Amino acid sequence: MATGSSIEGKLEGKNVVITGAGSGIGASVVAASVKQGAKTIGLDIDATRGKQIVETAGGIFYPCDVSQNASWEVITKSLASTIGHIDHLHLNAGIQIAPPDAALQEYKFGSLRIDRYRKMMGVNVDGVVLGLHHLLPLMKPGGSIVVTGSLAGVVPYDIDPLYAMSKHAVTGLVRSLKWELRDQGLRINALCPGGIDTGIIPNDQRTDEAIFMHPDHVAGEVMALFETAESGATWAKVATSKPAYIMYPPGKRRD
């Protein structure tokens, strides 16, 4: 997929909603969406940082804990009364099983802490499920949804197996919703990047040999996926110099 979707005004008159908008990929997508002329709504659990990032870029900010149904209920009512409908939705919020300053051993399955596990699944899985549940009724036919997955959602990731599990769940959901959402006139795709220089990367993974893409490279792909005719696809983004491409499930090459 080409990433040349930065034409200013391309999303003029469109409403775009982005979760995890206060940092990383979400912040880059907010900036790209505003640049293209969309009314851009950014959601993030960090009210202070999120508000600063989103409003500085020219968007509208709402605090939201994507893991909590009650938070989504408040957001949905606000969006219904302020913008009325959503053209494009980017369900992006995500975390790993341990904080970045934790030793890599704490990311292993054998170091499982239930509180960390519940928090991660709440953000990575519930954040997508609840987001879809509440916001699909506001989606305008012809619109599209992009879910931030991970390369760890299609291949093994032994540094953080539980994170990989959560992203495999997201991939499975996106692939399986294609036909149901098509009946509603909507498209859904998962963008699964490799290493991105964001705040969830373990500090100990930042070695001299490690190469990370910038969030802006992923934002360009999100913009392109808002417009693609494809749906139910898993798009891998493995390098800045290579466009995203579809990773088909085993035995599946085409419709």
Indicate the topology.
Elements: E1 15-19, H1 24-35, E2 39-44, H2 47-57, E3 60-63, H3 69-82, E4 86-91, H4 114-135, E5 139-148, H5 161-182, E6 187-193, H6 215-227, E7 233-237, E8 245-246
Helix pairs in contact: 1-6, 3-4, 4-5
Describe the structure.
The protein is of the alpha/beta class. The chain has a single domain (15-240), classed as Rossmann fold, CATH 3.40.50. 37% of the residues lie in helices and 18% in strands. It has 6 helices and 8 strands; from the N terminus they run βαβαβαβαβαβαββ. Strands 3-2-1-4-5-6-7-8 form an 8-stranded mixed sheet, with helices on both faces. Helix 1 (24-35) packs across helix 6 (215-227) and helix 3 (69-82) packs parallel to helix 4 (114-135).
List keywords for this structure.
255 residues, alpha/beta, Rossmann fold, 8 strands, 37% helix, 18% strand
Please state roughly what percent of the residues sit in beta strands, choosing from under 5%, 5-15%, 15-25%, 25-35%, 35-45% or over 45%: 15-25%
Count of all domains: 1
CATH superfamily: NAD(P)-binding Rossmann-like Domain
Strand order of the largest sheet: 3-2-1-4-5-6-7-8
Q: Structural class from helices and strands? A: alpha/beta
Give helix and strand order, one letter per element, not per position.
Answer: EHEHEHEHEHEHEE
Q: Give a quick account of the main beta sheet: strands, pairing sense, barrel closure.
A: 8 strands, mixed
CATH architectural group? 3-Layer(aba) Sandwich
**What's the overall geometry?**
globular
Average predicted confidence as pLDDT = 92
Low-confidence stretches: none
CATH class: Alpha Beta
